[in-house]
Amino acid sequence: MRYLFPFLFVMLLGCTDDDLNGDVIVQDIIGKWQLEATKISPGGIVDWTFVDDGVVYEFSKDGTLQLSKWEGCKAPVNGTFAIGEERLYLRFLCNSELYEPVYLISFEESKLILGFLGCIEECSYRFKKIN
């Protein structure tokens, strides 16, 4: 199996405590997650805003990813993911264009929280596990 981010997966196989935490995150993310709320700040304090019919991310043990939708793309969208240094790296094609978003990754009360690194203010996405 060829991973698009082999250096990140190698990091997760090391022997340090930090790498073991990465293994836990990888195991925790496997499965289907549906977006349930967003926290997008235009320049101030905001709270979670619930989302109807949010995108579903499906993370597989082999490092593959399927998105139920992505703005402007024919669904479903297939790609790969990797986790390293508390970041989630995605890679997929949409209309022949390569997308490689990177998110901070954490878990709170059994919810997956992704924070987009490209935002100046807060851009967080909360997912609930659906399987």
Characterise the protein shown here.
- With 131 residues, this protein is an alpha+beta fold.
- 15% of the residues lie in helices and 45% in strands.
- The chain contains two helices and ten strands.
- The chain has an eight-stranded antiparallel barrel.
- Strand 5 and strand 6 form a beta hairpin.
- It is globular and about 35 Å long.
- The protein starts with 5 loop residues before the first helix and ends with a strand.
- The relative contact order is 0.21.
- The N terminus is likely disordered.
List the helices and strands and how they pair.
Elements: H1 6-12, H2 17-29, E1 31-40, E2 49-50, E3 56-59, E4 64-67, E5 77-84, E6 87-94, E7 97-99, E8 102-108, E9 111-116, E10 123-129
Antiparallel strand pairs: 1-2, 1-3, 1-10, 3-4, 4-5, 5-6, 6-7, 6-8, 8-9, 9-10
Short description:
The protein has 2 helices and 10 strands; from the N terminus they run H-H-E-E-E-E-E-E-E-E-E-E. The chain is α+β, with helices and mostly antiparallel strands.
